[in-house]
Amino acid sequence: MRREFVGYTVRQLKGIPREQFVNELGGFTESLDLKYSTSQKRSWGDCYDYLLQEFRNTTKYDDSFLLFEYCLPFTNYRRPDVIMLFEGTVLVLEFKRKDISLDQDVDQLRGYLNFLRRYHDETHKMHYDVKGALILTTSNENHIQPCNGFSLVKGRGLHSLLEDQNFGGILDRASSFAWAESGYEPSQNVLKATFNMFLKDDLSMIKNISEHELQNILQELYELTVEPHNKKRLIFLTGVPGAGKTLALLHTLYQLNHKNFNAVFLTGNGPLEKVLSYLVTNASIGAEGDSLIKGVLAYKKAYFNRNSKQPFVNSKIPATILFDEAQRAWNEKAMGASYGMSEPELILKVQGAAAEQRGYTNVVASIGFGQSIYRGEEDEFETWVKVIEKPEYYDWEIYAPSMLKGKLSHIPNVTYLEDLHLNTSIRANFIDTSLFIEAVLDANVKVAREEYRKLREQGYFIHMVDNLASARSYLEGHARNTGDKFYGLISSSNMIIKEHQSDLGNVRMIQQSDSKETIGKWYTKNSSELNAIATEFVCQGLELNIPVLYFGGDFLMENSRWKVMPTKKYENPDKTIRNIYRVLLSRGRIGLFIFIPKSKSSEETVKFFKTIGI
Predict the structure, then answer these.
(1) Residue 381 · residue 403 · CB < 8 Å
(2) What domains can be seen in the chain, in order of their start residue?
(3) What is the model's pTM?
(4) pLDDT tens digits for 419-435?
(5) E strand residue ranges, 28-149
(6) What's the CA gap between 24 and 220, in Å, rounded?
(7) β pairing state of 310-311 and 304-305
(8) Which residues contact 223 (CB under 8 A, 6 or more apart)?
């Protein structure tokens, strides 16, 4: 059973000390691999004090079951403060240690309510009404104010709210647990939103070509996943950076869900997940992108029991997962002893359970090479090979392009299909920048010069600047002439931004931990303001028309070769930092700015690019 909440009856809550309550919520939060602050501990204590005060003089609600920090299924741990369950009502309580409510407080509560109304199986099945209350615990008004879709409780007033409104009788413990362990299903609004993304070209930073350009591979994926079968299938899709792998998976996601197959898009790329979720959410009124676009962490938590090291067999596991950038799956060492296996093996175990539930399953894994930028990803595709070479997975049908034959030749259950490889980068309007980038990373001036000449002839430009004002002047002029404002700053995450204010001003770094609204808005609206800079973690899998790549000092030329900044962050710094710059150099769709600030240490790097012809 998945127990992603802390539960007490009101009677139990009255009987435990405040410190024990706070510590139990803290321990639960840590069990989710999440951190919590002193401020969070104060909030938990404040919630405890408030509830005890409200229920102190009544026993009417003693058997009511309270869910604290309930993890909404598949939302990367969005957690309402408290949920009270009644026979006809799910009541969400959000506590704020303040005396006035802010827009973001209201938006947060409404987000919880909307999710439960649209995606929560047990809520739909039992026809529960979902209601909410925003409680301002430090207000002196002691007043209940009806609002649009929820109640605003100022000060002491929760008990009065429960008495005044007909929520139904107290839900028994067994039914409460059945509700808490429910799965989710996306509504038709979400499927409509996915369709709208393709119909309206809302995937502007990913969908840069028409579907017919990928016709062969889309047809292959359709035949292997959408057409009915009763198999367990693992399908590897490979391609050079920018070849359209993500687009192919998203198109298949739409095709599967359009025909009422249960499929989700899975990625370990947090920012890509947030941007896609943001786009799905905003593509159609009422849709939540979290239900179709999943992070690997949320997938593991939802469907795999670390204690038994087996899938949660009572969970409604998706029939098909489309795993983007699957070469980034963690190896066994990165997963740790609590899992005891790599991410690929966990996924095959979970989807094996899905096959038992549904009669079939598909895992489509897109594989890129030379793009591992995190610890635990260094083995790349070898992490998958180590799993599927085990005899216990020989009952899976494996499909792969022939370019993987050298790595899979010892595995008996593989069918090779040429159309599962994309060998041309389409990111830069079918101008393939990969040969130029590899020559740059190899410090091969002769080849880089020739490849750059070819890029210029095809219309792809690269400019070099030593100050932000020059780049801004050019890009703003470009925007006035073309209407194209899809440009922005990018850099390696190794840059210490406070050391570069003289060159960048008060630019802030967009972090992968930022919200989907922050990252989504940066990509769709705000990047051209040049007041924030995205790292490789944020821009991997996404692109800009004209990125401005800032060289922050971790990768500079010295004695005619690249010198990598010494660091203990990576097991293999030379390989990983080269991979970082492979990602950064390949983000441009129509061109690229290379921003190298003036300094003694950067002189040889500037000379290198000038010699190439930039």
Answers:
(1) no
(2) 6-180 (no CATH), 188-422 (3.40.50.300), 434-612 (3.40.50)
(3) 0.55
(4) 888 766 655 555 678 88
(5) 65-68, 82-85, 89-96, 129-136, 143-147
(6) 50
(7) antiparallel
(8) none
